[in-house]
Specification:
This protein is mainly α and 81 residues long. The protein has one domain. The chain has three helices and two strands, in the order E-H-E-H-H. Helix 1 links the parallel strand 1 and strand 2.
Length: 81
């Protein structure tokens, strides 16, 4: 049994997902072709994980300065050791 699609989107990265959503909103039937993970490089190995690591570093840096706010220092905090 063959299926008919109005549009085929090659690559389900961020751009491909935007095209797919737009086509669906326009009432088109869409086939999405992806050889790896949906979401692409940005979601799995690029900007999203990088931003997570950057945020973690900021939280770690702030935690090291807790004594300046009258809280136990990072080194004294038993939960963090």
């Amino acid at each position: 049994m063959q299926k008919h699609y109005d549009i085929a989107v090659i690559d389900a990265g961020s751009g491909g997902l935007v095209v797919t959503a737009s086509a669906k909103r326009a009432g088109l039937s869409v086939a999405v072709l992806e050889k790896n993970k949906i979401g692409g490089k940005c979601l799995h190995t690029g900007c999203v994980p990088s931003k997570t690591f950057i945020n973690d570093a900021k939280v770690y840096s702030a935690a090291k300065k807790t004594s300046s706010f009258g809280l136990p220092s990072f080194e004294e905090n038993k939960l963090l050791n």
